[in-house]
Specification:
Strand 42 and strand 43 form a beta hairpin. The longest helix has 33 residues. Among the domains are: 136 residues, no CATH class; 61 residues, Thrombin, subunit H (Beta Barrel); 65 residues, Thrombin, subunit H (Beta Barrel); 89 residues, no CATH class. It is mainly beta. It is built from 2 helices and 54 strands. It is flat and about 80 Å long.
Length: 575
């Protein structure tokens, strides 16, 4: 009996392990089906660029050599690491062909091969980088860059989903669905339209963004919602569905919905507030909902608990303060619905040590953690910069002050603003058109007149018609050789003229030009008498001075100059 029992236990355990393994395998398989690894391309990976000359388009390589002569009305490079170029056959009829670097047509069995443009991009390349769409008969499918079919040609149209690289909106019989670039069906083709929900997270970026679904009914459009894997969370029964993208929560979904002009609030698929309100607004600072019923306002938390009665004429949020107005009375609450005794209308915590307050006369001040006012002066605007530094405006002029009121940068500038993705400020004086930087310590770094601030990947530069200054992202002045030590040569200025020297300071080109660009590949732009030409890093002339350009932030590749394409990679021009 004992041996038999042990055998039964062993068999039961083995069966259990088998079932667990099977279930795990199914789950892993399902996850793998939806998993996408998108190719990431940086500028240093780029092998090919579009070339424009005489209103025709071709291709050059990263060394400036012509690969495809400019002979097409348009050229697209969906993956600039691959020699697959999409060239126009008939622009008006939207017919394209794919050619390789020898200008030989690829995949001639199809009457159209095209890239898939990303209408809203988050990467360097504004196309799907792993697949192309092909046309067979009157229908479309997708294939990889080696010509292998990912799907059959069964769709009336294929396009991208805004910001959702790797996901494609496909059309069948006038209705839309979604597949991914592996051909996996995410949403069946049964919707009038499918829209991006706008959700973004710093870690996952747009990976957890889902889809707003739209169907057309006899009573008008109705909206619903599906996750990035196609799970229907809200059936399309609402007049309006808006995901609260301000709530950064990858595990839960929050929506404001509308039915017949009445608004409600939904968490995942569960109704938190019925569609019984004239208005619902979300406040991110306090993580609350401002709700209106009939003519009165109140506040609810996102779990549906009423924390301020729906009894006020209006409610305005000022940082941590919730101002509730009723007739001549104003009551100030905190995010928990508790009343606060204060003469201020707004308090915003900006660091561990400081908050910015606004009083009822709209004057700004700084307070510490004990709510002690730190400034004796009244300011019309204060914005936190970093550490104990604040941008401060008095009247129409702006400067930088410390939390104790000490002036770090005189209050005499027309504007001071933060430089995006950097630890410094940009200050301008409109009257003399000077652009200046303020470093991370609040010190002025003198700029240039009639200039423009340009942010590169790891540094900043202020550029005028005949001069340039370089800065670190902390706003400290530096030089190009320090920033890019691997270059062979560098621009040098002497007696108001520009030339080129090698890394040891030896002259390569005499200082005889009005301006000289820095090295791009093996090429340098030179300017004389308002016209541009090109030399190589040995000082040899590649292109005589002849280009008349209206901009000064010029870069050359071979004899061609870079033109911004507004999105993605630049094109190069020879006109």
């Amino acid at each position: 009996m004992q041996r038999s029992s042990k055998k039964m236990i062993i068999i039961a355990v083995l069966i259990l392990l088998f079932v667990i393994g099977l279930v795990t395998g199914i789950i892993v398989g399902r996850n793998a089906k939806y998993s996408l690894k998108l190719e990431e391309i940086e500028e240093e990976d780029v092998e090919y660029y579009v070339l424009q000359k005489d209103n025709k388009f071709g291709v050059i390589d990263k060394n400036g050599a012509v690969v495809i002569e400019p002979q097409y009305d348009n050229v697209k490079i969906p993956n600039p690491t691959r020699d697959v170029f999409i060239c126009s056959v008939d622009i008006e009829k939207d017919i394209w062909k794919a050619v390789d670097k020898t200008n030989t047509q690829k995949w001639t069995d199809y009457n159209n091969v095209d890239s898939i443009s990303l209408r809203a991009i988050t990467s360097l390349v504004p196309y799907e980088k792993d697949v192309l769409k092909y046309k067979s008969g009157n229908l479309y499918g997708i294939m990889d860059f080696d010509g292998n079919k990912v799907t059959d040609a069964v769709y009336e149209d294929i396009s991208s989903v805004d910001y959702k690289e790797g996901y494609l909106k496909v059309e069948k019989e006038g209705s839309f669905g979604v597949i991914n670039i592996r051909g996996v069906q995410i949403l069946d083709e049964e919707y009038d339209n499918i829209l991006f929900d706008g959700y973004y997270d710093e870690k996952t970026k747009y990976a957890d963004a889902g889809f707003i679904l739209r169907v057309k009914t006899d009573d008008g459009y109705r909206f619903g919602y599906a996750t990035t894997r196609g799970k229907i969370v809200l059936e399309p029964i609402y007049n309006e569905v808006n995901r609260l993208t301000e709530i950064e929560d990858n595990n839960n979904l929050y929506f404001i919905t509308s039915v017949n002009g009445k608004y409600g609030f939904v968490k995942n698929s569960k109704t938190v507030l019925e569609n019984d309100y004239r208005e619902i607004r979300y406040d991110k600072t306090n993580n609350i909902l401002i709700i209106q019923k009939d003519q009165s306002y109140g506040v609810s938390d996102i779990l549906g608990k009423n924390i301020i009665p729906i009894d006020y004429n209006t409610i305005l949020v000022g940082g941590e303060y919730i101002n509730a107005y009723k007739g001549e009375e104003t009551v100030i609450f905190n995010k928990n619905g508790q009343t606060v005794k204060t003469d201020n209308s707004s308090k915003e915590r900006v660091s561990n040590n400081y908050s910015i307050i606004i009083d009822k006369d709209n004057n700004y001040n700084i307070v510490d953690n004990s709510d002690k006012k730190l400034l004796n002066e009244n300011y019309t605007y204060i914005e936190y910069f970093r550490d104990d530094l604040f941008i401060a405006t008095m009247g129409t002029k702006t400067g930088v002050i410390r939390a104790n009121g000490q002036v770090a940068v005189p209050i005499e500038y027309s504007t001071i603003q933060k430089v995006e993705d950097a630890n410094c400020l940009q200050a301008t004086i409109v009257e003399n058109n000077v652009t200046t930087l303020i470093n991370s310590e609040g010190k002025l770094m003198q700029g240039l007149e009639k200039s423009t601030l340009i942010k590169e990947d790891n540094y900043l530069k202020i550029l005028s018609d005949n001069d340039v200054k370089y800065y670190t992202l902390d706003g400290n002045e530096t030089n190009y050789k320090t920033l890019v030590p691997e270059n062979k040569v560098y621009a040098v200025k002497k007696d108001g003229k520009w030339g080129v020297a090698d890394a040891q300071g030896n002259t390569v080109v005499n200082a005889e030009y009005d301006f000289v660009t820095e090295q791009n590949g093996n090429f340098i732009g030179v300017k004389k008498d308002g016209k541009w030409g090109v030399i190589d890093t040995d000082g040899n002339i590649v292109k005589d001075v002849q280009y008349e350009l209206s901009f000064n932030n010029v870069s050359f590749l071979g004899e061609y100059y870079k033109v911004s394409s507004n999105v993605g990679l630049p094109i190069y021009c020879g006109d």
